[in-house]
Structure to design on (223 residues):
């Protein structure tokens, strides 16, 4: 099975292989359904330091593992922003088992649109934001995602955090320089590495704004 759509950001392909699904953007592999651990770890790591019953923003629906993890928590509200309508449609069908029907949870609100555009037009603020767009800060496939990982994009995300809020960022590879930028802009960073075989580990950076007066914060704690 293969489904192919053409969007404003290029070609998007969902392909089944050996009982699993793979997602490609403009011919570049993004993710598959074989594990989903790093998507779940993104939510776990962020909510581990967020306040109880948090308002959560998930930026990027992907293959649904982050959202499925989020609905298993005590989050009071979960907003999911996904730029590709095709991805949303796939989660109403062939990908529903992987997101575990989480789009139907009454706490979930789906926004289909560009994250930066949506954030610019909303005053909503969150206890935790989980950013999982494209392949992370070091390897973006589509141009619209690049700005989210620059200082201006991270500053915009920070402005949508409630006091003491946390920003979790998924990355396909370790990005020490990016972690330093997160520390300066948001607050102290914890970096979690998720083993991937074969290849380099996936990475989740979690920056906590608690106690940060938004001046430079020195030091990055890594696991």
């Amino acid at each position: 099975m293969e489904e192919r759509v053409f969007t404003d950001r290029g070609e998007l392909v969902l392909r089944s292989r050996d009982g699993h699904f793979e997602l490609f953007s403009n011919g570049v592999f993004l993710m598959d359904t074989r594990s989903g651990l790093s998507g779940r770890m993104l939510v776990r790591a962020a909510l581990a330091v967020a306040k109880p019953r948090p308002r959560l923003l998930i930026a990027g629906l992907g293959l649904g593992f982050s959202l499925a993890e989020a609905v298993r928590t005590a989050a009071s509200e979960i907003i999911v922003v996904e730029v590709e309508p095709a991805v949303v449609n796939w989660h109403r069908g062939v990908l529903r088992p992987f997101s575990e029907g989480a789009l139907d949870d009454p706490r979930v609100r789906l926004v289909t649109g560009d994250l930066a555009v949506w954030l610019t037009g909303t005053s909503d603020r969150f206890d935790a934001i989980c950013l999982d767009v494209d392949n992370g800060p070091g390897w973006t496939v589509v141009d619209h995602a690049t700005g989210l990982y620059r200082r201006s994009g991270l500053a915009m995300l920070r402005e949508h955090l409630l006091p003491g809020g946390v920003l979790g960022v998924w990355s396909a590879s370790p990005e020490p320089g990016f972690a330093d930028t997160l520390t300066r802009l948001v607050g102290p960073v914890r970096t979690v590495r998720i083993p991937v075989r074969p290849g380099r580990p996936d990475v989740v950076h979690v920056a906590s704004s608690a106690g940060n007066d938004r001046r430079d914060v020195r030091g990055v704690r890594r696991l």
In short: Residues 213-223 have pLDDT under 50 and may be disordered. The first strand starts at residue 2 and ends at 7. The first helix runs from residue 37 to 47.
